[in-house]
Amino acid sequence: MKEATKVDLEGNYVEPVLVPFSQTGVTEIRELLPAEDGEELEEIVTGYIIAEKVPNGLFKPRWDFNLWADYQAGLATSREAYDQELADWYVLPEEERGERPAYVEPIRPECWGEGLPQEQIDEIRNAPVPLSPEQRIAQLEAESVEVMLGLTEIYETLVETNSGAMPGLQRLMSVFSGGKR
Question: Tell me: the pLDDT tens digits for 33-45?
Fold first, then answer.
């Protein structure tokens, strides 16, 4: 058994599935619709099994059925052309044949692609990384020191100017310095 991928009708990744080692390419998932009074059962395609490895790095893998169909058509065309070339070669007398024609398979395209729009990928990549508890504590301590230094600067400026807001600032400074009033 090997891992394959179940996709929906649009080619979007659904889940991994196990398939026989011999299974390759794309296989339809078919289900029977319940029959109503006297009607025949109807079989519909509900998804696909893709026995092709999903490349790493995709956020939301999506199978391109059009690319796969074009590749399958190219395979059939190249096979037909090779069969004809080989048949023509066999018709020639042995002394005129030369080397046996070689089959050249078309280049296999990568049918897995990204299913998320670039904007969503950028959002994911640029999302802030949550801080660990230790990092959060260190951040709060640093912010607390900054606030205390700022208040100390204001307090010293007001002391120099002899402002009327002194009693309130003195109470505030004593709270930040650990004293109680």
Answer: 877 777 778 889 9
Considering the domain boundaries, does residue 25 fall inside one? yes
Instruction: Supply 141's token pair.
Output: 């301590």
Confirm whether 94 is domain-assigned: no
Tally of domains within the chain: 2
Residue 120 structure tokens: 């969503």
- Cβ-proximal residues to 18 (8 Å cutoff; 6+ apart), any chain: 1, 2, 3, 4
Instruction: Report DSSP letters for 143-162, one per residue.
Output: HHHHHHHHHHHHHHHHHHHT
Residues of the chain with pLDDT under 70: 162-181
- Residues spanned by the domain of 24: 1-34+42-60
- Global pTM reads 0.63
- In DSSP terms, 19 is beta-bridged to 2
Distance CA 23, CA 49 (A): 10
Tell me how far apart the alpha carbons of residues 62 and 65 are, in angstroms, rounded to a whole number.
9
Q: Are 14 and 6 in contact (CB under 8 A)?
A: yes
Please report whether residue 10 resides in a domain: yes
Distance CA 66, CA 61 (A): 15
Q: Which two tokens stand for residue 159?
A: 């002391």
List of residues 6+ apart from 112 with CB closer than 8 A: 52, 54, 55, 58, 61, 62, 63, 64
